[in-house]
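Re: How this chain folds, sequence and tokenised backbone to follow

Filed under: protein folding, tokenised backbone structure, sequence and structure records.

Contents: The amino acid chain and a row of whole-number tokens, matched residue for residue.

Body of memo: The sequence and its backbone structure tokens, given next.
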Amino acid sequence: MLIVGRGRLSMFLVVLFLCLNTQPESTISAEPSTTYSMTVDLGQDLGQSFGSLFEVRDKDNRVIAGAGFLDVYNTRFRSDRHTLQFFVRPQNAPDQFKVARLPHPDLDCGIYLIDLNQKIRAWSRAGKDSVRLWDAESQKWSDAPIPQTGQVRSGDGIMRVGKGTLTFTGNQVAYNDRVILNPPKQGTYYNFYYAYGHLFFYHTHRKDNGGFTKIYACPWTSDSQGPINLKQAVILDAKYVGATPFAWGQYGDEVLTVSNYGGVYVFRDNHWSTLQAAQKGVSFQVYSMMNFHDRLLLAQYPTGELFEYQGKELKRLKGWPPKLPEVSSGAREAQTLAIYRGDLIVGVWPWAEVWRYNLDEKKWHSMGRLFTHPELTDKTTHPYEAEAKRFKLVTNHWGQRVTGMVPLGNSLMLSTSSKGTYQWFDKYDFLTEPQRKEYGAVIQMEMPGNLAAQIKWKDRAVKLDFVIEKDQILIRQEGEVLAKANYQSDDSEAFQNATVKWGDGVFGKLNGKIISKQILKSKSQ
């Protein structure tokens, strides 16, 4: 691994990443071992975003630790909502990180990441919707098992719901081994999403004289005995046939979707409403949505910036994120979002820029690019425009995307792609073998002090412990260690007189109920 210090990452290989309940605050004084212990009831799993468990702030009101559940939809796939993150920010060298490139998944020029049960899968449309599974122990990729309902397509997915598994593939939906939605008699179901006890999806039927695209919200829970009843669905007719979303999101008890024609639709109180009308010829595309503190963030093209939604309108956040000074300001696309080590991480097309935002500092940190080539320039909008023209491809064919961001153990896993997940041909003689393998790659990035683990769903309140020791951090569920990571504690002074805010933080307000909470201190390890 390469250790990288402050400032922008120098070019090396891949960049190598170049690079609720309102509760009273509690005052603490940290010892060599500090445990934040709580019993929390997340309620029935209805596909909701669970939010934050707690946040710790020092005497200067800076966040130094926290825990919660990331819920983000990055272009094609939704993150695993049962993944719990615990972070502690070091006081010394807080911007340091290290990166490594995984073996290439061999899925041609682009992949997207699917995460489930703290394992990652690489998906590519090249090779007829191929999916490969990463084995961290053997450090190898293998072909992933195909669900009983068929191969995973763009916008499909596999997600945990309670103790079961909900699978959207092959134009149908299954819960565990039971099919609950069969393929339509005409057209296609696609881009599924499950939230607040409703299964959402688009349905398009094309025909010579027109056709239709409808957006469905179908009542269903894991307790439902029969299949989904489409007669109970609340349906919105899209303005244009073929409308397609790249992301879904939640704000409070609302569900949002944005079509590729810029239509923004909100489902609330069992009713669809149009927040922004679709319009052909006007670019407004949203590629990711994620809860962040008290707002829903939307990553947008063509500004390459984020928008926020807090229940009324979409508001553009200018300069969120900024751009590298050497590249063009045109046709930019904020595509991927994540929360890692308590900070907001954003990936931006077409130069695969990665940015990190610290809310306390109100400052963006450039982490460079995920590619080492070509040299940055503002003379063209996209990389390799001349080469694309030579091979009679669209001009932005070799634009560079950051397509996935998945917290895994103590790391953040990132993936790359060309504009599409295209097949590679040897005739593309302008790229060396190492250069072409930077497309469709997976990069492992690590910042000290972050830990992700898969919770074990119990259909009841569970006790969770978040422990900071002298040389490690760990997460326990009812006494069982879920995950641990090395961490050299250098922040005992920062924890003096720190305050804890329960049920709130960077992942948004807790969507659940805190039964009990306490802070335990011990001088022995």
Residues 1-24 have pLDDT under 50 and may be disordered. Helices lie at 126-129, 385-390, 433-436. The radius of gyration is 22 Å. The first helix runs from residue 126 to 129.
